[in-house]
């Protein structure tokens, strides 16, 4: 198994991409500290994986005491910490007219500041294990949809942090830091967002080819499969890298003059 013996902390691990990553890591032999705000579904996940392989700490990662609590849960339960997956994210729609300071503070607190705080708390133990960090970003980090202004900015900050620490932490502590930027992924949260926007229940089966050339959206399990490579020793000394996981080139793509509605 590719992650045998490793202990991995996954934030936002109760649902969506984080849940898929936690499950796949367990299948590959890892033990998990799962963090998320959806406590009941988190408990369900721990029961599914088994208490000997997973533990849940349902807490808000923006609270100053939580990063250290997460690290101590890993040490207290499993005796070590080999990797951190900064997956938790806050998503909200905003543009130049609707973005305000309160939204920006909340967006950056979850998507950029908390990941740094968790790395700081984990660093001594990651260094001891010669472990790694995997940040889950978004292709929106490169520019973003006009109605995802604050979100895109926060993911851009996360990406810059990955490139910065990917160099410094590997040279000084032996800790690799990398990032994957998923494209459009069909998560439960994405379905809920589209329902609130008035989309039909089966909207994801009718996404135009310009947005989904494969005829479907990405699945959380496909992001999880890629995550295993970066969390395993297979990725060797690679650090400070950002990889887009999308169906088409996000930058420099040749789009038709008139775009259809994505839903």
From TrEMBL:
One Pfam family, short name: adh_short_C2
SUPFAM superfamilies: NAD(P)-binding Rossmann-fold domains (SSF51735)
PROSITE patterns (alphabetical): ADH_SHORT
Record PANTHER family: EG:BACR7A4.14 PROTEIN-RELATED (PTHR43975:SF2), ZGC:101858 (PTHR43975)
Similarity comment: family membership: Belongs to the short-chain dehydrogenases/reductases (SDR) family.
Name used for this protein in its record: SDR family oxidoreductase
Protein's organism: Salmonirosea aquatica
Species lineage: Bacteria, Pseudomonadati, Bacteroidota, Cytophagia, Cytophagales
